[in-house]
């Protein structure tokens, strides 16, 4: 395997010897099972809320309305309670993520992932055994806590163990497993929708599988060297660094991490420090990229794809089938990104995909506006065209705003605010997924096809943001971001103009050049 040779802006060579070792690959795949949990849940929620037997048991009024011959196409699924079922998970995830970030810093990335899997397991059991809506929601809350802990720890973990040169591709495995989780859930839903009346229990209980994978697999993985050194376990940190890099000569990288950790020790309140001017670039970009990820309209397409297809007059089976098809596109798109993200860079993918998603979502909106009236059904060939456009949209998302929404916030913060800053970004994801999930059915009911144009407008804004305000982070070692990325950016460098002080009034060492 090649050694990493990095050249910074001043032409100084920075060599962090490293191989892409099996340890790193195995740890990445196991940790990414956190993505499998998240994805499975997203896919299952959309599927079961389209199943008659599930609606009949827990949401009888939605069931009745759905089967009324003249029910309004845009409104027949609108129910506050049904929306609460989907979005209660995100409320718990917000709290889970906040506590998870403290756990990540104090106890490490690995135990945080283990706690995540236990919560998720309990949630899956509660849901599979649900006798009433209370049990169903309690289960959703546990699943949410699991996702909060997991989504906080996994991307950070991967970004910290990955050699800089492969960080993008490895981190994207998290999104790859999210999409595989969604696809698996679609397959499971398709099979269980025929098993009356308990099929939905199998679907919901299936969430236990990814949780068990993460729980059992996590016994084998290492803690990140950064987290070990951060918690004073320097010897173990050095040993782990040698092991995962596959070389003995890790002194430069070890020194770099130790320096960053040393500085971070002066910061006792990372959340408070996040509001300092010097943290503003990372905080704004990290939070915005996650908010924008949701403003692509992805959750609208994902959570309600089967519902959307039914709205267009495709039957229950045909809807699940089309959701299955469209969801096969995403893992393929993310696989493509894994191979190009460290070559083309993050920004190129974000800009290209924003344009692609703008066009496809706009076209879906036009078709629905022109051809789907309140109580009719869209003609078959238009329904097929919508499915194709959904695929184009999803492919764009899958190689850009989807995976990079997790990668970029996990790599841009310095160690002192990394866990806290990343949690703010992840919480933004949950808050905005919640808002989108909670409002989409109502929005569809009132704004109709206009809902899609609203997301188009957001995509235009996002394209400009990626072009002008987001710096490129490909190949830059994670602990050198401030010096080599933020202080060089035309806009964000202003946040470092004056003396750049941390909480303790200390200045970060100006040059931690590795000769
Ligand atoms: C997003 C989810 C989305 C999923 C689709 C994730 O990165 O956070 O909101 O549903 O990707 O693949």
UniProtKB/TrEMBL annotation:
GO cellular component: membrane
Similarity annotation: Belongs to the major facilitator superfamily. Sugar transporter (TC 2.A.1.1) family.
Source species: Salix koriyanagi
Ranges of residues in domain Major facilitator superfamily (MFS) profile: 27-474
Main localization (coarse): membrane
Molecular function terms, GO-annotated: monosaccharide transmembrane transporter activity; symporter activity
Membrane-related topology note: Multi-pass membrane protein
UniProt subcellular location: Membrane
NCBIfam families: SP
Protein name, per record: SOLUTE CARRIER FAMILY 2 FACILITATED GLUCOSE TRANSPORTER
Keywords: Membrane, Sugar transport, Symport, Transmembrane, Transmembrane helix, Transport
Transmembrane segments: 20-40, 81-103, 115-131, 137-158, 170-192, 198-222, 283-307, 319-341, 348-370, 382-408, 420-440, 452-470
Lineage: Eukaryota, Viridiplantae, Streptophyta, Embryophyta, Tracheophyta
InterPro entries: MFS_dom, MFS_STP/MST-like_plant, MFS_sugar_transport-like, MFS_trans_sf, STP/PLT_plant, Sugar/inositol_transpt, Sugar_transporter_CS
């Amino acid at each position: 395997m090649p050694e990493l040779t990095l050249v910074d802006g001043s032409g100084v060579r920075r060599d962090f010897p490293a191989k892409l070792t099996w340890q790193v690959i195995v740890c990445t795949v196991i940790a990414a099972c956190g993505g499998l949990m998240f994805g499975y849940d997203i896919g299952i929620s959309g599927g079961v809320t389209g199943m008659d037997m599930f609606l009949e048991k827990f949401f009888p009024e939605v069931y009745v309305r759905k089967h009324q011959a003249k029910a309004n196409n845009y409104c027949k699924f609108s129910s506050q309670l049904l929306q609460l079922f989907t979005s209660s998970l995100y409320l718990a995830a917000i709290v889970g993520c906040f506590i998870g970030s403290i756990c990540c810093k104090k106890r490490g990335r690995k135990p945080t992932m283990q706690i995540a899997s236990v919560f998720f397991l309990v949630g899956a059991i509660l849901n599979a055994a649900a006798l009433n809506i209370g049990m169903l929601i309690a289960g959703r809350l546990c699943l949410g806590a699991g996702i909060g802990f997991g989504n906080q720890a996994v991307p950070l973990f991967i970004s910290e163990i990955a050699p800089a040169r492969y960080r993008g591709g490895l981190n994207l495995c998290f999104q790859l497993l999210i999409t595989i989780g969604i696809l698996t859930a679609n397959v499971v839903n398709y099979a269980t929708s025929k098993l009356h009346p308990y099929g939905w229990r199998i679907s919901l209980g299936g969430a236990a599988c990814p949780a068990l994978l993460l729980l059992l697999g996590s016994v084998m993985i290492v803690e990140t060297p950064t987290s070990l050194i951060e918690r004073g376990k320097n010897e173990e940190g050095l040993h782990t660094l040698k092991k995962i890099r596959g070389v003995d000569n890790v002194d430069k990288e070890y020194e770099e991490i130790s320096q960053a950790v040393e500085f971070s020790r002066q910061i006792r309140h990372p959340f408070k420090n996040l509001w300092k001017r010097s943290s503003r670039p990372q905080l704004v970009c990290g939070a915005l990229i996650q908010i924008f990820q949701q403003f692509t309209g992805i959750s609208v397409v994902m959570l309600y794809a089967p519902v959307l297809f039914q709205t267009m007059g495709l039957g229950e089976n045909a809807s699940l089938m089309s959701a299955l098809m469209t969801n096969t596109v995403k893992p393929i798109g993310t696989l493509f990104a894994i191979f190009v993200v460290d070559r083309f860079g993050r920004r190129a993918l974000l800009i290209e995909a924003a344009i692609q998603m703008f066009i496809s979502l706009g076209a879906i909106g036009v078709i629905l506006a022109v051809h789907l009236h309140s109580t009719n059904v869209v003609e078959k060939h238009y329904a097929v065209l919508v499915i194709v456009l959904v695929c184009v949209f999803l492919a764009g998302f899958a190689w850009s705003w989807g995976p990079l929404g997790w990668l970029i916030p996990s790599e841009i913060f310095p160690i002192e605010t990394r866990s806290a800053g990343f949690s703010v970004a992840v919480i933004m994801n949950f808050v905005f997924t919640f808002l989108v999930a909670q409002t989409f059915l109502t929005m569809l009911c009132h704004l109709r096809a206009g809902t899609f144009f609203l997301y188009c407008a957001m995509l235009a804004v996002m394209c400009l943001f990626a072009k002008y305000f987001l710096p490129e982070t490909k190949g830059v070692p994670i602990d050198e971001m401030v010096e080599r990325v933020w202080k060089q950016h035309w806009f964000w460098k202003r946040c470092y103009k004056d003396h750049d002080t941390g909480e303790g009034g200390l200045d970060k060492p100006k040059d931690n050049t590795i000769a």
